[in-house]
Design a protein that fits this description.
By secondary structure, the chain is of the alpha/beta class. It has one domain. The protein is built from 10 helices and 8 strands. The strands form 2 sheets. It has a 5-stranded mixed beta sheet with strand order 4-5-6-7-8, sandwiched between helices. A 3-stranded antiparallel beta sheet has the order 1-2-3, with no helix packed on it. Helix 8 links the parallel strand 7 and strand 8. Helix 6 crosses helix 7, helix 7 crosses helix 8 and helix 9 packs antiparallel against helix 10. The longest helix is centred in the N-terminal third of the chain and has 19 residues. The radius of gyration is 22 Å and the shape is globular.
């Protein structure tokens, strides 16, 4: 059932079974303003999980053309750069519409390095990201992590991060005021939010030099990471204790409204200090469901790592880097709404900033020592 007026969409959707339910429930979980991404009373965020509504809702702007063009560019880059080599898991003649994927033995070739450089010269760039921290799909040319290492790994090793110092967001705020090589690390793990070691927040790029900048890098993704508790299957060992129906309410006889709070994870300790979302009232749906990855990055940047960890917003901000061609980051896209839903609730909206890879590439082009890298970025990604 879908009800519309000029401003609000309300959707009735089926929820997964609770552990003590004999039948599925239906609850109204979507209530959002199409213009702002928030409810008309500004007490509910936009729900971005289009695929779970059961109503065949789709993001207003399709991504198929964008992905087709991007993957075609990758295939052209493969042929022009590697020819008919056997570096890939499938031959170039493979007509399947997918990006090229490197074999495990040759996965390092997904990271851009200076042409003609030796393996010894390339090694410092490769070491900027530990192999065990590579994502599952790092071998794919659509990997945003491989792109991140290609850019920030080379800038760090070459001590050229200062080319980003003058970059500003749409509000004139500096994006990288501490762009120094010794302050930069890739896949930086955060150990002060109460998370288990294997599930700690890992920031794509982190700058720490008194001030902290958490950088979230996207390429072809259509949304930000979401909380996994609503996706637990009933055969999961943690289902009976950790399952969440997507609302910030007491469930399954837990004492806390959030399953993660019950595990002593500290998100909701800091969220009310950082945003206008209160931890003491129910939220249906939970505002952290669609904004989960953004909030974790904000906490990484705005919570002081020195014990006892406390919120310190003036000394940190988040930068989201995205492909300007990606419809998900334009008005109507899921990622766009996640950013909007977060920014409109931040007590200090300047803590969340964004820029495109195209802006990064343009700043790099002004440095003559980086011509090889910007040329390679253009050939492979079209920036």
């Amino acid at each position: 059932m879908l009800w519309r007026d000029n401003e609000v969409n309300r959707v009735l959707v089926p929820f997964p079974k609770q552990a003590n339910d004999s039948t599925s429930k239906k609850r109204t979980i979507l209530l959002f303003c199409r213009n702002t991404g928030c409810g008309p009373a500004r007490n509910l965020p936009v729900c971005l999980d289009w695929g779970r509504t059961g109503l065949n809702l789709k993001p207003p702007t399709p991504t198929s053309d964008y992905l087709s063009d991007l993957f075609a560019r990758f295939r052209t880059y493969r042929l022009g750069t590697f020819g008919d080599s056997d570096y890939f898991d499938r031959p170039a003649s493979d007509a399947q519409k997918r990006p090229p994927v490197f074999k495990l033995l040759h996965v390092d070739k997904n990271v851009l390095v200076q042409p003609g450089s030796s393996s010894v010269e390339q090694s410092p760039v490769m070491r900027t990201l530990a192999r065990q921290k590579r994502h599952r799909h790092f071998a794919s040319m659509r990997s945003s992590q491989a792109l991140t290492q290609s850019v920030f790994g080379n800038l760090k090793v070459g001590k050229k991060l200062d080319c980003l110092l003058d970059l500003q967001d749409e509000n004139g705020l500096n994006l990288f005021p501490i762009a120094a090589s010794d302050a930069c690390s890739l896949e930086h793990e955060i150990d002060y939010l109460g998370e288990a070691k294997r599930a700690q927040t890992s920031v794509d790029v982190m700058f720490i030099k008194g001030y902290r900048i958490a950088v979230e890098c996207k390429l072809a993704e259509d949304k930000f990471g979401v909380c996994s508790r609503p996706d637990l299957k009933d055969d999961d060992p943690q289902y009976l204790t950790d399952f969440c129906d997507g609302s910030y309410t007491v469930q399954l006889n837990r004492a806390e409204r959030c399953a993660l709070t019950s595990k002593r994870i500290r998100y909701w300790e800091f969220v009310p200090q950082l945003t206008s979302w209160s931890a003491d009232v129910d939220h249906v749906p939970c505002p952290l469901r669609p904004t989960y990855q953004i909030i974790r990055n904000l906490l990484a940047a705005c919570v002081s790592p020195m014990p006892p960890a406390t919120l310190d917003p003036p000394n940190g901000h988040v930068v989201v880097i995205f492909d300007d061609r990606n419809p998900a980051f334009r008005q109507g896209g899921q990622a766009h709404y996640a950013l909007l839903a977060t920014k409109t609730r931040l007590k200090d909206p300047s803590r969340l900033r964004k820029c495109s890879w195209q802006q990064i590439a343009a700043a790099m082009r002004r440095n003559p020592h980086l011509v090889w890298l910007t040329d390679a970025l253009h050939l492979k990604y079209g920036f």
